[in-house]
Design brief:
mainly beta; seven-stranded antiparallel β-sheet; five-stranded antiparallel β-sheet; 5 helices; rod-shaped
Length: 554
């Protein structure tokens, strides 16, 4: 049976993953101080129970990842001059597979724009910088919709060379309208077009055969009252044929009524007077106007209210469409457009032909700008996790000073040492052995053995006669009084605290621990390892913490 998994599924999966950090406990883990067989080429990581157990054995510490360290993401696409960007197209099943239909306009500005028109596959040469909440057509013919700006903090925290965090802009969201048509791309040149920007022929901009210049209203008396009878200046080359402009759009372009649009119902050539479909307020002498093809959109099932006016050059070619009313409720592409509209009684009335207008339907929910995640198909989740600053080994908080890290990953819903769901900030996965002897010569990554256990030395801290040996990969057990022996000739030492008051574990304790063998980490092998990576070694200092960015594509 034919079927598909929509892009909404990928976004749903990414959103669910992100929200999972609010519902459960997820930890960043680090570990493995011992070298790979080739440290420059870490081995492949295998997803098997046996390998999961080895990962647990190598863990040195875990740090909780909070919800504010995870965000939805999109593929990064930096604006570059000379690139032909894809325009958003509601009927394209391959949108985003080419040069990209949105851009990051500079890592300094950090503004994200959606491409709504690419001037029929022309190269982009003007970087969008506007932050208007409607649409703006640049001089290169591109129309960019501003969506949001990434703050410097968020950008530094989550952005990588390949992905960007998704954001919102409350005003952009507020301006969005479901099913509204906010741009009208013009498709390929017609056979009668002139140049890259001209489509179709035989249209009128208010004159016959010449470009309209100095078009203004010439009322005999300024009128602050509503009026639908407008006298136009005779010097602008108006038609001398009655009814010539009937059913065209009339747009006031200056004065108190700027933006008012009406339909011309009658034109008397002898007096240069037009009668409008309804009155216009506050018309003054010298106010300018535009007459042009009326562009409407019909939808067989949904959508109503779109109105535009065609911009026409002196050769009668349609150059663009100015949207006067975006309408609403348009939900599919089963639509057609009309230029000029109904029958006109003038025999030479310019009907125009050959212009191709490609109506693009916005996202069904909310329209363009309502949800940048939906507009841009946010199918990535970005995790920005970091280790904590180092402290001493008495605290039970993992910091992992010294040694190296060769394994990192994410662990979901582990149990603490009391077998309850872990909720702490961090856990030290190393076992700490307290030694009061002097002259310890054990080394990092050296194996130590006792009568009943063995482990790998992670690091040694403290002062001679009061030292902590932290170990990983522990098997068997260590106990007070055990003798440990180093495999590298590091001597033999007895595990004992001898009542040392400064051996306080966990931090803040006022009593000596019951045993000089301490472990305050998680219950081993609990929870689920959801991501793991073998990496080249990261050398650590005692005052160092790391930030790791994990990117997941759904």
């Amino acid at each position: 049976m034919p079927s598909f998994i929509s892009s909404n599924f990928s976004r749903y999966a990414a959103e669910s993953f992100v929200e999972g950090f609010s519902l459960g406990s997820v930890y960043l883990y680090v570990g493995k101080g011992t070298v790979w067989s080739d440290d420059t080429t870490p081995p492949s990581a295998n997803d098997t129970p046996a390998d999961h157990a080895k990962i647990w054995d190598n863990m040195a510490g875990v740090v909780r990842v909070n919800r504010n360290q995870v965000i939805l993401g999109i593929a990064r696409n930096n604006w570059t001059s000379g690139v032909i960007y894809e325009r958003h197209n509601d009927i394209s099943s391959t949108l985003g597979s080419g040069t990209g239909f949105y851009v990051l306009a500079g890592s300094t500005d950090r503004d994200v724009y959606l491409c709504l028109d690419n001037d029929y596959d022309a190269q982009s040469s003007v970087k969008p910088t506007h932050k208007t909440f409607g649409t703006t057509r640049e001089v290169d013919g591109y129309v960019w919709k501003y969506l949001y700006t990434i703050s410097a903090i968020t950008f530094n925290k989550f952005a990588t060379d390949s992905v960007l965090p998704v954001g919102t802009h409350p005003t952009v969201t507020g301006y969005a309208k479901a099913g509204s048509i906010i741009t009208v791309p013009l498709s390929a040149n017609s056979q009668n077009g002139i140049g890259a920007y001209y489509r179709g022929s035989g249209f009128s901009n208010g004159t016959q055969g010449i470009a309209l210049a100095g078009a203004y209203i010439d009322t005999t008396v300024s009128s602050s009252s509503p009026t639908n009878a407008i006298k136009l200046a005779a010097s602008v080359g108006l038609s001398n044929e009655n009814n010539y402009y009937n059913n065209c759009a009339f747009l006031v372009t200056s004065g108190l009524s700027t933006g008012s649009v009406r339909i011309i119902q009658d034109y008397v050539a002898s007096t240069n007077t037009i009668t409008l479909s309804s009155p216009v307020n506050s018309i003054e002498n010298g106010d300018t106007f535009q007459i042009g093809p009326r562009v409407t959109v019909d939808n067989r099932y949904t959508g109503i209210g779109f109105l535009g006016i065609g911009n026409v050059n002196g050769s009668g070619n349609l150059t663009s469409v100015t949207i006067l009313n975006t309408g609403g409720g348009y939900a599919n592409s089963d639509i057609s457009f009309n230029v000029l509209g109904d029958y006109n009684p003038a025999p030479t009335h310019p009907d125009g032909s050959g212009a191709i207008i490609d109506i693009t339907i916005p996202p069904i929910q909310g329209g363009h700008g309502y949800s940048a995640a939906a507009d841009l198909n946010a199918k990535f989740a970005i995790v920005s996790a970091e280790t904590v600053l180092p402290t001493n080994d008495q605290t039970g908080t993992f910091s992992g000073p010294r040694n190296e890290i060769r394994q990192i990953g994410l662990l979901r819903n582990p149990l603490d040492s009391g077998k309850q769901t872990a909720l702490g900030t961090s856990y030290d996965m190393r076992t700490t052995l307290y030694i009061t002897q002097t002259g310890i010569t054990l080394s990092e990554d050296e194996e130590i053995v006792s009568e009943t256990g063995k482990a790998i030395v992670w690091d040694i801290s403290g002062t001679s006669g009061s030292q902590y040996i932290t170990v990983t990969n522990k098997s068997g057990s260590f106990a007070n009084g055990d003798t440990i022996t180093g495999s590298g000739g590091g001597g033999q030492y007895i595990i004992n605290n001898n009542g040392k008051e400064n051996y306080q574990y966990p931090i803040g304790s006022t009593n000596n621990p019951e045993s000089p063998v301490m472990y305050g980490g998680l219950t081993k092998y609990s929870g689920q390892i959801i991501y793991h990576e073998n990496i080249q070694p990261i050398a650590r200092r005692s005052n160092q913490k790391e930030n790791f960015k994990f990117v997941f594509e759904f």
